[in-house]
Amino acid sequence: MTQQNTPIFSTVGIVGTGAMGRGIAQIAAQAGSQVVLFDAAPDAGGKALAAICQQWEKLAEKGRLTQEQVAQRVEKLSVAVSIQDLAPCDLVVEAIVENLKVKQTVLSEIEAIVSADAVLVSNTSSLSVTAIAACLKRPAQFAGFHFFNPVPLMKVVEVIAGLKTEPTICAKLAVYAQQMGHKAVQAADTPGFIVNHAGRGFGTEALRIVSEGVADFVTIDRILRDQAGFKLGPFELMDLTALDVSHPVMESIYHQYFEEPRYRPSVITAQRLAGGVLGRKTNAGFYDYIDGKAVIPPEPAVPVVTDMPPVWVSPRASRRSELLHLLKDLGATIETGASPSMNALTIVAPLGFDITTVAVVERLDPSRTVGIDMLVDDAATKRRVLATNPATRADMRDAAHALFARDGKAVSVIRDSGGFVTQRVVSTIVNIAADICQQSVCSPADLETAVTLGLGYPQGPLAMGNLYGPTNVLEVLFNMQTVYGDPRYRPSPWLRRRGAIGLSLLHTEE
Ligand code: NAI
């Protein structure tokens, strides 16, 4: 935790000492830089200094810092009396209000105060670095330096070069990030940079599934946690970040990409934002909160089925042999005929297609047809997901539910849609990631690092694509495009090229 190297920036100014500024100030001081805190609000700098010191005291109480180390760090911090006190800084980090005009005004003022070789950076999360730099006399010495909240714990920072940024500045910032204990990733100046761009798939696709009435919030969260290994479901996550933060990001990226359908926000979050139903901080979000704890509705009970019908599995089911083994293990009576008998529960396992389409195309009786998501290896998932079609009989739905729950594994039953929940969300995440690579927003390696550290996904989006199989992801997307006729599911050429020839998504040479 203590920093031995001489910091590449010896004196760092932090302008705007709110949630982000104080976090950046803390790690800058930990890296050994002298840190000058400046804020327009009276007392804000002093409050930030006290808050940072408190963090270090807490570490000392836990035995992770000595009092001497705390004292050494505290000495690194000072509060500016006026903006002129930023004059000795060789780096100034702007973390003020997210407003282009205000940022430009403040940065121009700072540029006139500091020396000619000082570097200026902005912690902007959504504004164009090039646009901010347009007001500066020395845009070559300006870059984006985008941290995540809480800064000391979120160990990644995006370094963003504007059109005129000198590459050596980005290289210096990457070294400094490392000295602060962070991993720098290099991003092109594009809407949402890497993390906020890559994060578009998770929430927006989940919201779309809800808006189609396929499943409710809680079920989607359960499925994505248990089947795909996300730490938090998308609705738990939106409740945590709060809709006054996440909805504007969705809108901003969508508009900055000139209404690209992939990033289309949801009316659900727009309405909730307007109604003040923001999440944890208002005690009401997708979940209700009592004493800070989410009220989680109970799982639907497993139906009791005394007369289990025989089961027939479509020859076109994905992972068919695995599915047949599973059914055998669950004690099902499996039919082996070319078509199901009159009583058989008919199981299909499509990728991307809806159960209705499969029943029609395969000429199956839809009233006895139930789908199961076999994108994920059954042994690797804690939940099985079944889908009915509008004609599925209740007794057949209940039989499938009871059968697949026989070994105690959780089962969710959702309504019909092109692609199941995990198929839709995972494929959307992978497709957006592929598009990020296609646009050369960053290197595939930096994409993986940024997403795992910045979003906490169980793996990077390209590794996720490899896990589920690039050809499977492609199949889901192609079929969903057919079902929905929506360009949002159009596979990125980057993904198509790799998927079509069965190449790992982490294989990037062309
Ligand atoms: P905040 O509201 O907690 O703090 C902003 C601080 O800037 C306040 O103390 C305010 O008094 C000060 N300020 C406002 N205008 C000023 C001016 N003209 N001159 C000097 N000080 C001024 O905001 P927060 O959350 O720390 O965000 C700051 C920046 O970081 C924004 O650009 C935001 O988009 C970005 N960001 C925020 C993240 C977050 O999760 N909160 C994550 C990543 C980036």
Walk me through what this model shows.
With 510 residues, the protein is an alpha/beta fold. 43% of the residues lie in helices and 12% in strands. The chain has three domains: 11-189, 3-Layer(aba) Sandwich (Rossmann fold); 197-294, Orthogonal Bundle (N-(1-d-carboxylethyl)-l-norvaline Dehydrogenase, domain 2), CATH 1.10.1040; 311-414, NAD(P)-binding Rossmann-like Domain (Rossmann fold), CATH 3.40.50.720. The protein has helices at residues 19-30, 44-61, 67-76, 100-113, 129-133, 167-179, 195-198, 200-211, 217-226, 234-241, 243-256, 267-274, 320-329, 355-361, 394-404, 421-438, 444-455, 461-468, 470-484, 493-500; strands spanning 11-15, 34-38, 77-79, 91-94, 119-122, 142-146, 156-161, 183-188, 289-290, 293-294, 311-313, 345-348, 369-372, 383-387, 410-414. Strand 11 (311-313), helix 13 (320-329) and strand 12 (345-348) form a beta-alpha-beta unit. The radius of gyration is 26 Å and the shape is elongated. The site of 1,4-dihydronicotinamide adenine dinucleotide has 23 residues, from helix 1 and helix 4.
- The level of helicity is 40-55%
* General form: elongated
Task: Give the N-terminus to C-terminus distance in angstroms.
Answer: 40 Å
CATH H-level name of the largest domain... which superfamily?
NAD(P)-binding Rossmann-like Domain
| Assigned CATH class of the largest domain | Alpha Beta
Q: Which fold name fills CATH's third level, the topology of the largest domain?
A: Rossmann fold
> Mind summarizing the main beta sheet?
8 strands, mixed
Radius of gyration: 26 Å
Widest sheet: strand order? 3-2-1-4-5-6-7-8
**What is the CATH architecture annotation of the largest domain?**
3-Layer(aba) Sandwich
Would you report the number of β strands?
Answer: 15
Could you tell me which ligands this complex binds, including any ions or cofactors? Answer: 1,4-dihydronicotinamide adenine dinucleotide
Q: List low-confidence stretches.
A: none
Counting helices, strands and paired strands, the structural category is: alpha/beta
Mean pLDDT comes to 96
> What is the number of helices?
20
Oligomeric state, counting identical vs distinct chains: single chain
